[in-house]
């Protein structure tokens, strides 16, 4: 993609209205938290104090709208505490640039590294940098610093108390995640009626699993309906795929296909009813015709063999889903707290036990090629540079420039540029709107305070419709606060526009100077997905060779790893398509062909999983050899893809030929057929990523040059500064930088 086209794409993305469900009640409650802080401060102290005190309540309230599975009140308290700490530290170092600039750089770097934990942590950490930049403009003193930090923390406490006293749709996000997973499987079943090989995106299932992880306190209050149906969706997905597939399920034409379509339609109706029941917390009815389809007539059943097995298993699972739909999750029974007897709970560390997790996550990202590390470096550099440049300009409120940079920067190119465009457009519209209102109403601190609360509520309401539209009312909120504090609008409007433009430009320039492109990393992401898919397929095959509970646990573990690798690839591929970078290693066409091949490979493994034999039965003894060959070849092929070499499937071919030779003693036609499909998918993958001999020679020459350059750099580093001589590397040794140490 060219730079011109990339700019057009980010501008369109930044100004796009996202179709999402609004949450006006949550926005009203959060805006009330801002009003609780502004009102008493305006009445008891002064307008200027009220304007500064509103910072904590507004930012803590905004943090509760981030996508997180922790209780909102915990997020509000954590955000308020972080804002208070940054305010206090900023006060103490704000006396001189020689102390403040290093503190700002370190704080911004740590805020950038917070993305290693997750997007919510990164966004909340960025707001603490903004808090530090704002507070240094206020009068400094030890007592004033403590007082101001306490007032900001009080804003977070106010938001948390409102959440506690006025709960709105408790467990609503968790219900939505589980309902979306069931609805995704329902949509999959509906599409399989017309396309037996339709693809399935496992993201809703991954989101539901993430939402299912709970802290000990959450486990004691979580509704029982949020615990079981997720596993039901996981079990139904491969069964409907196996039933619809013409190779291992219902025949392509005839009465068997008609019966399969009836069952798939009934599955979609039942799962949709269960999704509605969980989302609303009330019973939902299943269409009578769908319930009639699930009554199996043994004498007149037209499906045979594996297709009949899949149909019987599907009916059994759908009966469980019907019970979920009819109950509505209205049971008052409280699940027991997690412990040794309830190991099925997915545990999430509490806030107090989160520190070791954060340290490990940050340590993993402390490397030069990490997008999170590069984002942290850019954030630190832009925050300090923007502050220095703005301080030199003949404008007031210089902190607006670095704040704009910090709030729009993200670890990837597209979101950084799109948010920069959206912030400038939203700021322009919001400032113009607020300026017109200020000019019409004249100076009145109480009116401006009320308008600030209204603007905050509208910003919260539109927070998920697009950054530009929420930023419009955020800008208006700031103008009203400054007007309430006594700042003339003629001074604030031009300053905010110029400094916002400067901050956005610095954020964009920083990504060009120190980028973290995903395009060069595509081969590595593809290799990770290939190796993970190979381990998943091998785990399924081993369950055919020796069915056991341990092997079923291995299948689940490998499946989750495969999904994570696929999600990482998909995210990297989507980002790479939006980057103005020439393809390196994989062209867009090659990446798409390789992606389709790996999807078919994973689908074949999923279909095999749907027919895994019961424990303690021997089904396909030859599957063990094929599993070993498949795992070994996919692991080697992953290394080949990373090094831009052509993969080879010699061991897979040999094992498959041996399996075909033993067909007489093999009682698993389904698994053998899917093994052949896997082999075909691997061949298609090799075709997609194969390179000509000339390309291989060029790649090998470049790799050799890179190694020589690394060796030379290591030799210069190891030279004695007095003699210019370096340490010798003995036979069989190499520098630590090349050995990965």
Automatic annotation (TrEMBL):
Q: Does the keyword ATP-binding apply?
A: no
Membrane-crossing residue ranges in chain numbering = 26-45, 74-94, 100-117, 148-168, 420-438, 468-486, 498-517
Taking the first listed entry, what is the main subcellular location of this protein, grouped into a coarse class?
A: membrane
Protein's UniProt keywords contain Cell membrane? yes
Basic and acidic residues composition bias: residue spans: 715-725
Q: Where in the cell is it found?
A: Cell membrane
Query: A Pfam family for this UniProt protein?
Result: FUSC_2
**Entry keyword set:** Cell membrane, Membrane, Transmembrane, Transmembrane helix
Q: What does the record say about its membrane topology?
A: Multi-pass membrane protein
Region annotated Disordered, chain positions = 692-741
Q: Which InterPro entries match?
A: Memb_transporter_dom
The protein's matches in PANTHER family, at most eight in alphabetical order, are given as:
MULTIDRUG RESISTANCE PROTEIN MDTO, P-HYDROXYBENZOIC ACID EFFLUX PUMP SUBUNIT-RELATED
Which protein family is it in?
Answer: Belongs to the YccS/YhfK family.
Q: What is this protein called?
A: FUSC family protein
Q: Which organism is it from?
A: Streptomyces lannensis
């Amino acid at each position: 993609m060219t730079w011109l086209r990339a700019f057009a794409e980010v501008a369109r993305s930044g100004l796009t209205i996202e179709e999402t469900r609004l949450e006006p009640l949550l926005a009203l409650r959060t805006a009330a938290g801002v009003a609780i802080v502004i009102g008493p401060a305006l009445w008891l102290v002064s307008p200027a104090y009220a304007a500064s005190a509103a910072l904590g309540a507004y930012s803590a309230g905004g943090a509760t709208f981030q996508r997180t599975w922790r209780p909102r009140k915990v997020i509000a308290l954590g955000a308020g505490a972080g804002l208070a700490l940054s305010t206090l530290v900023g006060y103490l170092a704000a006396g001189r640039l020689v102390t403040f600039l290093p503190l700002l750089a370190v704080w911004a770097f740590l805020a950038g590294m917070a993305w290693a934990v997750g997007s919510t942590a990164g966004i909340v950490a960025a707001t603490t940098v903004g808090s530090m930049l704002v507070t240094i403009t206020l009068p400094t003193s030890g007592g004033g610093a403590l007082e101001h930090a306490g007032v900001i923390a009080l804003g977070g406490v106010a938001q948390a108390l409102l959440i506690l006293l006025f709960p709105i749709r408790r467990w609503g996000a968790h219900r939505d995640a589980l309902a979306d997973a069931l609805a995704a499987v329902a949509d999959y079943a509906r599409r399989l009626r017309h396309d037996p090989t339709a693809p399935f995106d496992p993201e809703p299932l991954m989101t539901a699993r993430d939402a299912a992880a709970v802290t000990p306190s959450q486990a004691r209050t979580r509704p029982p309906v949020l615990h079981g149906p997720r596993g039901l969706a996981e079990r139904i997905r491969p069964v409907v795929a196996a039933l619809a597939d013409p190779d291992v399920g219902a025949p392509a034409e005839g009465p068997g296909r008609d019966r399969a379509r009836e069952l798939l339609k009934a599955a979609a109706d039942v799962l949709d009813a269960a999704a509605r029941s969980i989302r609303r917390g009330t019973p939902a009815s299943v269409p009578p015709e769908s319930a009639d389809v699930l009554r199996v007539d043994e004498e007149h059943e037209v499906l045979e063999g594996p297709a009949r097995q899949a149909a019987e298993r599907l009916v059994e699972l759908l009966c469980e889903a019907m019970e979920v739909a009819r109950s509505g999750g209205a049971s008052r029974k409280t699940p027991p707290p997690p412990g040794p007897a309830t190991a099925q709970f997915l545990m999430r560390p509490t806030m107090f036990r989160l520190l070791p997790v954060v340290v490990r996550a940050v340590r993993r990202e402390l490397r030069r090629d990490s997008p999170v590390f590069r984002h942290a470096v850019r954030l630190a550099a832009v925050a300090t540079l923007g502050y220095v440049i703005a301080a030199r300009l003949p404008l007031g409120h210089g902190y607006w420039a670095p704040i704009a940079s910090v709030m729009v920067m993200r670890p990837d190119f597209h979101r950084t540029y799109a948010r920069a465009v959206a912030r400038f457009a939203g700021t322009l519209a919001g400032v113009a709107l607020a300026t017109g209102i200020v000019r019409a109403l004249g100076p009145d601190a109480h009116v401006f305070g009320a308008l600030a609360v209204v603007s905050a509520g509208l910003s919260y309401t539109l927070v998920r419709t697009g950054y530009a539209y929420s930023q419009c009312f955020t800008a208006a909120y700031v103008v009203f606060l400054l007007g309430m504090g006594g700042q003339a609008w003629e001074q604030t409007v031009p300053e905010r526009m110029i400094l916002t433009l400067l901050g956005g430009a610095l954020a964009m320039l920083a990504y060009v100077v120190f980028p973290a492109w995903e395009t060069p990393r595509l081969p590595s992401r593809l290799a990770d997905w290939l190796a993970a898919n190979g381990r998943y397929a091998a785990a399924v095959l081993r369950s055919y060779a020796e069915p056991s509970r341990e092997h079923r646990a291995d299948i689940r573990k490998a499946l989750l790893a495969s999904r994570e690798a696929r999600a990482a690839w998909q995210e990297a591929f989507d980002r790479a398509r939006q980057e103005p970078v020439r393809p390196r290693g994989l062209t867009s066409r090659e990446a798409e062909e390789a992606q389709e091949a790996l999807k078919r490979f994973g689908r074949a493994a999923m279909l095999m999983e749907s027919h895994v034999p019961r424990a303690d039965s021997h089904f396909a003894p030859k599957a063990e050899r094929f599993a070993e060959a498949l795992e070994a070849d996919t692991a080697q092929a992953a290394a080949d893809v990373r090094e831009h070499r052509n993969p080879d499937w010699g061991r897979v071919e040999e094992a498959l030929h041996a399996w075909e030779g033993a067909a007489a003693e093999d009682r698993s036609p389904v698994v053998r057929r899917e093994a052949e499909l896997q082999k075909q998918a691997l061949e298609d993958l090799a075709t997609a990523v194969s390179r000509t001999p000339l390309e291989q020679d060029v790649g090998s020459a470049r790799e050799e040059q890179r190694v020589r350059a690394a060796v030379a750099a290591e030799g210069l580093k190891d030279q004695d500064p007095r003699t210019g001589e370096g340490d010798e590397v003995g036979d069989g040794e190499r520098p630590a930088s090349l050995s990965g140490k």
